[in-house]
Design goal:
Layout: H1 3-16, H2 18-26, H3 28-36, H4 42-71
Helix pairs in contact: 1-2, 1-4, 2-3, 3-4
C-alpha cells in the first residue's frame, strides 16, 4: 500500500464528499478503513490519518495565505 497515494485519494474524498468528511471528522480511523475497503494495520492507518489531517491543514493555510495576498 502506497501511503502517499492513499493520503491524496482521501484528501480528495474529504474535500468532495460531505458524508465522508463528516465521518472522517467523527472517527477518522473507521472512515479511512471503510474508504480503503480493507483492514489496515493500526500503525499504518494512524500514519494515513495523520497525513490526511496534515494535508488538509496545509491546504487551509495556503488558502488563507492566498486570501491575504489578494488584500495587498
Amino acid at each position: 500500500m502506497d501511503i502517499k497515494e492513499q493520503i491524496e485519494k482521501l484528501v480528495d474524498k474529504v474535500k468532495n464528499d460531505d458524508n465522508f468528511k463528516a465521518d472522517f471528522k467523527k472517527n477518522p480511523v473507521n472512515a479511512v478503513e471503510k474508504a480503503a475497503g480493507v483492514d489496515i494495520p493500526d500503525g499504518m492507518v494512524d500514519k494515513v490519518v495523520a497525513g490526511v489531517q496534515a494535508k488538509l491543514g496545509a491546504d487551509k493555510a495556503e488558502g488563507a495565505l492566498g486570501a491575504l495576498k489578494k488584500l495587498f
